[in-house]
Amino acid sequence: MKQLLYSVLALLFTPVLVASEMPLNMTEGVTDISNRVYNLHMIILYICCAIGILVFGVMIYAMINHRKSKGAVAANFHESTKVEILWTIVPFIILILMAIPATKTLIAMEDPSNADLTVKITGSQWKWHYSYFDQDIEFFSLLSTPREQIDGDATKGENYLLEVDKPLVLPINRKVRFLMTSEDVIHSWWVPAFAVKKDANPGFINEAWTRIDKPGTYRGQCAELCGKDHGFMPIVVEALSEEDFDAWLITQQQHAQNAEAAAKTALSQTLTMEELMAQGEQVYLARCAACHQPNGAGLPGVFPSLIGSPIIKGAVASHVDIVVNGKPGTAMQAFAKQLTATEIAAVVTFERNAWGNDSGDMIQASDIDSGSSTPAASDDSDTAIATTLPATLPETQQADIPATETVVEVTEDVKAVVLDDLTMDELMTMGEKVYMTSCIACHQATGAGLPPAFPSLVASPIIKGPVSDHLEMVINGKPGTAMQAFGQQLTPQEIAAVITFERNAWGNDSGDAVQASDVDGHGK
Questions:
Q1: Could you tell me which residues are beta bridge partners of residue 129?
Q2: What is one term from the GO cellular component aspect held by the record (predicted)?
Q3: Assigned CATH for 2-109
Q4: Among 67, 187, 244, 443, which one has the highest count of C-beta atoms within 10 angstroms of its own C-beta?
């Protein structure tokens, strides 16, 4: 019997003795903080194992030596004050012993002061943007795993889905402060070797820091469910010696100067259709295919199709504008800082001529005005009219404006279009477009919402109530809820159209036709 007891105890003690060598155990990492986190983890693990050994040891001993077959009689006692005091004080002491090292480690993890280098990390679907403060260096880091491996047409590499085109380069032996935020949804920057995992929230700045001890390449990934390509958002950090890092900074600054000179030279170059299509396809597959799919079909209701779409068939200026400046309130990002003028020209040319679009349009780098983000006017009357529109005007509005309407500047930052009242059909058509890009994510294509987080718009109190209340909600949002303020994201005409659509779609049938003048006059 004693031999059995020794065997059981040996099995219980073995995990404690070899835990640090287990391949599934937490790794020590390459920073002081990661080592402290590892040591804290091991202390807590040992405490838990000791408690487990003690508890199960007593249980096993009691079951063996106080079993009924040996004539043991259970003790009969009730409400023992000593036992109750004991099982209250002992766990309290254990928790205090755990809390002391844990608190010290947490305080150290949250102290980014006196940093030698600050890097701003911005997450977006689905890439990372790194900006080095005081160094005039910034770049985007994208997944570089070949599409053939992702599709299963090629053998997967050693670092499958954990490789990027441009790694974050950091020095060793210097304290690096991270400022983390997001352009769209919540992401999370996680590098296990540094013991750094911090959420990147839109509209907020979170801080973290590290001091790397060893040169090398360290990998991580987004640790937040940030959308359909969440698994394709890796992080690669290349840690260099201090001397090599300083040399890298000089090299990057020189590359930036060379890229600027090359961009200026490209403005005078004219590429053939074949060259534009070849380069445009490369850019599209790397930057656009994640949302709009390699075949341009998109994901209806989420990411629009580019096959025969209004933006593709519309004015070139509107197409360039949405690529350069993005579209507020949607997942369409601004690529002005991500792509060169040549790349923008190539991808717009590709999109307008691929998948049967066959527009014949050829856009050159010289057509991309980096200042106004619109191409130069041409003899095409539609294009000429589009280039008179404000660069910030959403493309849905530009596509619907007849040539007889006039653009007027209200202030330096706010521009409006003088429009006549639209018919109910026009309002419903425009409103549906706006709803499908700005509202569908929360309230669903059917207007049913996701109660209780996102209320249904089918016969809801706000829909059946006064138009002014509906206007107030859309323009100014609702504090304390997920309802955003769209007053700065949509034009008055778009707000009028989407409210008209919501009040008359899905059987609401209010008959209300809201006009841009109603939006301009709201609250005045």
A1: 122, 140
A2: plasma membrane
A3: 1.10.287
A4: 187
